[in-house]
Design a protein that fits this description.
With about 100 residues, the protein is an all-alpha fold. About 85% of the residues lie in helices and about 0% in strands.
């Protein structure tokens, strides 16, 4: 499946490749670098959320799915991003 952002990126690349190939290389490099940064951030967030779920599982004697649901519901109730709440759990050891 192609997203709108991917289509836009492809259109930009196609246009730049025809206009100025050296600039195209810089555009490709910039887009690849941005994608790497986003993926690295997502990996860090996923690990931190997983660790927070583990703490909740241990403290409340829950399964992984139940631990995630507790974290997700608390995130929605408090209107806070899941990753922010996960950080709180990691620093305090509790879901307060």
């Amino acid at each position: 499946m192609t997203t709108g952002s991917t289509r836009t990126d492809n259109t930009v690349r196609s246009f730049v490749c025809h206009v100025d190939p050296p600039v195209a290389c810089n555009v490709e490099l910039k887009l690849a670098t941005e994608q790497i940064e986003h993926l690295e951030a997502a990996l860090v967030n996923a690990r931190r959320i997983g660790a927070a779920i583990g703490i909740i599982m241990t403290r409340m004697n829950l399964t992984e799915d139940q631990g995630f649901e507790v974290l997700r519901e608390a995130s929605q109730r408090r209107n806070r991003k899941l990753r922010q709440l996960a950080d709180d759990v990691l620093y305090t050891g509790a879901l307060e």
